[in-house]
From TrEMBL:
Keywords: Membrane, Transmembrane, Transmembrane helix. The chain crosses the membrane at residues 7-28. It comes from Neobacillus niacini. It comes from the Bacteria. Pfam families: Phage_holin_1. This is Membrane protein. InterPro entries: Phage-like_holin (IPR006485).
Length: 63
């Protein structure tokens, strides 16, 4: 269950879901979608959610 607490897993799942929506034609204007994804990633990077350098563990699940 610790695997589901990993932020990188949820970011990857969201990316795959977004690509699937574009491929199936649910999202027709990919330029707007790309802009939203870019802005969300900027916020996540600034918040330190993707990689927390203070703990020194990077993407590892356990210390």
């Amino acid at each position: 269950m610790n695997r589901f607490k990993n932020y990188a897993l949820w970011i990857a799942i969201a990316a795959v879901a977004g690509m699937a929506l574009v491929d199936f034609g649910v999202i027709a204007n990919t330029e707007v979608f790309d802009n939203y994804v870019e802005k969300i990633l900027y916020v996540l990077i600034l918040a330190g959610v993707i990689n927390n350098p203070t703990s020194g563990t990077g993407f590892k699940d356990e210390k």
